[in-house]
Amino acid sequence: MSSLSSRMDSQVFQAFSTYATIVILKMMLMSPLTSYFRLTRKVFANLEDTKLVSSKEDKKLVCIDPDVERVRRCHLNDLENIIPFVLVGLLYSLTGPELSVALLHFRLFAGCRIFHTIAYIGALPQPSRAGSWILGMLVTFSMAYRVLSAVLLL
């Protein structure tokens, strides 16, 4: 048990905790951003939500807006990528990697996700968004490989 405790006190685990918190907070900020886009463009997911801007329900306020959908899809993409990073990164940080290698993984992933959001919401031309997504996935796969090679028991 002392080995697990010492690994949790390690600089790698502290670095992981820092970058995991950054990308989790970034993911959490996508919800208020979606709400902002919905309110400013008067686009609502449900008819009853139209009462936020009108005393009576107005069916024409409920529609699809490309900007709102873009932010929503970006948020869903975060969920598909940040949750695996956090889970794999936690296990990875407990395998005792070199701090410099771990920091490279964590920084690359956090940077990729932040750039991915900028590219997605700003509608930057491809392959900007795809490249950042691929690099972020490769980072997570690299950590997963390290975890499996360190602890694989079949």
From TrEMBL:
<dbReference type="Pfam" id="PF01124">
    <property type="entry name" value="MAPEG"/>
</dbReference>
<dbReference type="GO" id="GO:0005789">
    <property type="term" value="C:endoplasmic reticulum membrane"/>
</dbReference>
<dbReference type="GO" id="GO:0005741">
    <property type="term" value="C:mitochondrial outer membrane"/>
</dbReference>
<comment type="function">
    <text>Conjugation of reduced glutathione to a wide number of exogenous and endogenous hydrophobic electrophiles.</text>
</comment>
<keyword id="KW-0472">Membrane</keyword>
<feature type="transmembrane region" description="Helical">
    <location>
        <begin position="79"/>
        <end position="95"/>
    </location>
</feature>
<protein>
    <recommendedName>
        <fullName>Microsomal glutathione S-transferase 1</fullName>
        <ecNumber>2.5.1.18</ecNumber>
    </recommendedName>
</protein>
<comment type="subunit">
    <text>Homotrimer; The trimer binds only one molecule of glutathione.</text>
</comment>
<feature type="transmembrane region" description="Helical">
    <location>
        <begin position="133"/>
        <end position="153"/>
    </location>
</feature>
<keyword id="KW-1000">Mitochondrion outer membrane</keyword>
<dbReference type="InterPro" id="IPR001129">
    <property type="entry name" value="Membr-assoc_MAPEG"/>
</dbReference>
<dbReference type="GO" id="GO:0004364">
    <property type="term" value="F:glutathione transferase activity"/>
</dbReference>
<feature type="transmembrane region" description="Helical">
    <location>
        <begin position="12"/>
        <end position="29"/>
    </location>
</feature>
<keyword id="KW-0812">Transmembrane</keyword>
<keyword id="KW-0808">Transferase</keyword>
<keyword id="KW-1133">Transmembrane helix</keyword>
<dbReference type="InterPro" id="IPR040162">
    <property type="entry name" value="MGST1-like"/>
</dbReference>
<dbReference type="InterPro" id="IPR023352">
    <property type="entry name" value="MAPEG-like_dom_sf"/>
</dbReference>
<comment type="similarity">
    <text>Belongs to the MAPEG family.</text>
</comment>
<keyword id="KW-0256">Endoplasmic reticulum</keyword>
<keyword id="KW-0007">Acetylation</keyword>
<keyword id="KW-0496">Mitochondrion</keyword>
